[in-house]
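Why DNA-binding transcriptional regulator, MerR family? Reviewers of the renewal asked for a concrete example.
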Amino acid sequence: MNYSIGQFSKLIDLSAPTLRYYEKENLLIVHRDKSGRRFYTTDDIAWILFIKKLKNTGMSIKDITKYALLRYQGDSSIAQRLEILEKQKLKATVEKEKWETNLGNLEEKIAIYKSKLQST
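Here is what the prediction returned.
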């Protein structure tokens, strides 16, 4: 099935300007009809949802763009894409450890305050 930019935007919960930006940054190769109007396919849905997941890991647009360009090259680029994902996983793991430390610090301070409130 084909979708107009408006339909696609609603379907994947991204604005039309964001989709145009993704196109400009080569994150998404957009199909065009005979009149030159953009259209999107069901394959594009899965791709955009994956881009959102990459963004949620904290991956930069620069790295997502590298990944996207490799993706469009096909299976010959799997090793390179895997490397990008493994590097991002390491970055996310380091960030997770920082957050766990920060949460532990908050929990300690909360426990101190609760203890002080109970003793008064």
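The domain at 2-119 is CATH 1.10.1660.10 (Multidrug-efflux Transporter Regulator; Chain: A; Domain 2). This is the kind of structural detail the renewal will allow us to pursue systematically.
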